[in-house]
Amino acid sequence: MFTLHGNGVGAGIAIGIARIIHRPGQEIPQYKISQKQVSHEISRLDQAFASAGAALNAIKGQLPAEGIGEAHAILDAHLLILQDPVLSQGSRELIDGQQINAEAALQQHAEKLHRTFNKIDDPYLSSKSADLAQVIDRIQGELVNDQVGLVARHEGNYEGEVIVANDLSPADAIELKRHRISAFITNLGGPVSHTAIVANSMKIPAIVGLHGGVRYLRTGDLLVIDGMRGVVLVNPDEVALEAYRRRQLKILRRTQELNLLVNAGALTLDGVEVLLNTNIELPEDIQESESQNAAGVGCYRTEFMYMNREHFPDEEEQYGIYARVLKQTSSPVIIRTLDLGSDKQVDGGRASGAIVTNPAMGRRAIRLCLHDLGLFKPQLRAIYRAAVHGNVKMMIPMISRVDELDRLFFLLEEVKQELQYQSFDFDPDLQVGGVVEVPAVAIAADLFAPRLDFLSIGTNDLIQYTLAIDRVDDEVNYLYDPLHPSVLRLIKMTIDAGNAANIPVSMCGEMAGDVGFTRVLLGLGLRDFSMDPAAVLPVKQQIRLTDISRVRPLVDMLLKTTDPEQVQSILQRINH
Ligand code: PEP
Ligand code: MG
Predict the structure, then answer these.
(1) Does 469 have pLDDT greater than 50?
(2) What one-character-per-residue DSSP string does 361-408 give?
(3) 296 Cα–ligand 2 center, Å
């Protein structure tokens, strides 16, 4: 038994069997095998060589015969490397001699060959070194039966398993949701990355940012995942296993206790009513939202609908999906328009060139949509049309300038005129709000508020941009601080500006669903929260135990405190 540590995400504890999934070019799993497993491991290696050869031949067969001689030459060179017994035999010998897994043996042998190439000062041989690397990547991919997509191409059933990967994109995570896995753990990633957010919505624990720890694991290991403490127990003994089973039971009892609050009001001790909404990613999540008796949907992240498929959903498909969601609820639903870009790539970032430098500051969300009307207009039309089936509001992510809103409103008018002209049934009056997630908007919220029907504070990005911390990067995650006075001040400025303009201000970032911050947010004046459905009842319980007039002066202190120890001690006073 040994333990690994990372950032815990999501609810509770999972106990399950590890399943390693791997993408070419990523960290290679390395572990010892027994003498008995050697022949099995060698046949895995041989099989991977054979499949890689078949894949190369298939690609070659699809190339037109004329005009791309260079492509043929590259594929032939790769086939020659693959068939060279030096590569396969050397790896086999390592499996046998060192009793290590096929991936590790192949990697070790390839490194030796690279060193040999690099010692010779010859441009031809160094170009062969790059070819060798590509061939090795292909075989490694075959070894885990995963050449292109990480999850989407796996036909296997992962139900109940713990997925172990170097990294998972949001597209991978949303695909895993279908597989009903029991947990996932990754080397990379931060706890407010979209991948982690999907873990929350799956109601499973996850651990991200294991900093290379996954290389000590192999498929078949028994794992305990403690999402609350960020701990992975590998092949635990019976005593530890029993202790975790007892903790699992305790969590279950606590969930049952919380369920008694489903129909209770979200009212503070001093009689202030609070709205609790949900964030959803997939249309079927509306059932979970309804089961928590939430006030409505505060943020429907529509971009997940665009992932893991060959073609984008057209207007009709989107209309059908939105209408289906709306027919299942009588509560308001805020449909957030597409927030693609940055870490949320349609294919998880696998298409070449999809990830740009500083993607979080690049052409994402409304910037992408206003740039590509062919992408945006079908969604706008579908939302207007679906709005006749329920209570819909539209929310625009990533606004940063008032003139962006001018362009947006101009476009909305155009869309409505077209729908009118084409005699579609639609709701021309639906409200339009904006996500406050760029600091510039929070600072000048008084200039944005009068132009919009509502605001929603997206703390996940607001914190990322305010503190200059990539929310996906585990290396700087320790700096991700929702209680930084700059962040708290921006939240307060936004709430105050909304109140002055007499429009509602909600919060849809992860901070809204963290019971540790509920009282701080109430003290800052927030009365409208939107969170993962699983957080609704714990937050409601905290609200019912809060006296806002008591916490307000303490929250005022937080706005002026920078010392981390003092911040923690004030937070403790707020929460007790
Ligand atoms: C946010 O940024 O806080 C937010 C709610 O949006 P997302 O997490 O989808 O970027
Ligand atoms: Mg955001």
Answers:
(1) yes
(2) GSS-HHHHHHH-HHHHHHHHHHHHHHGGGS-EEEEETT---HHHHHHH
(3) 19
Q: Is 194 known to be catalytic?
A: yes
pTM of the model: 0.79
- Closest Cα partner for 223 from 47, 12, 3, 390? 3
The total domain count for the chain is: 3
Q: Tell me which ligand sits closest to the C-alpha of residue 529.
A: 1
508 is catalytic: yes
Q: Which of 109, 194, 299, 369 is catalytic?
A: 194
Claim to verify: residue 124 and residue 226 sit in the same structural domain: no
Does residue 410 share a domain with residue 283?
yes
Lowest-confidence region among 63-77, 265-279, 314-328: 63-77
* Residue 176 in domain: yes
- What's 495-524 look like in SS3? HHHHHHCCCCEEECCHHHHCHHHHHHHHHH
Going by alpha carbons, the residue nearest to atom 1 of ligand 1 is 458
- Looking at residue 237, which CATH number applies to its domain? 3.50.30.10
pLDDT of residue 264: 97
Q: Which residues line ligand 1 (CB under 6 A)?
A: 197, 299, 301, 339, 437, 458-461, 508-509
Q: Choose one of 460, 467, 514 to mutate for the ligand 1 pocket test, by most ligand atoms within 8 angstroms of C-beta.
A: 460
What is the residue range of 106's domain?
A: 35-148
558 and 413 in a common domain: yes
Centre of ligand 1 to C-alpha 373, Å, is 22
* Distance, CA of 166 to CA of 20 (rounded, Å): 9
Q: What pLDDT digit, counting tens, does each position of 171-215 carry?
A: 888 888 878 899 999 998 888 888 889 888 888 999 999 988 888
* Residue 262 domain-assigned (yes or no): no
| Residue 27 within a domain | no
Higher pLDDT, 286 or 140: 286
Which 8-state DSSP code applies to residue 540?
A: H
Indicate if 306 and 422 belong to the same structural domain. yes
Q: Which of 307, 337, 395, 508 to mutate to test the pocket of ligand 1 (most atoms within 8 A of CB)?
A: 508
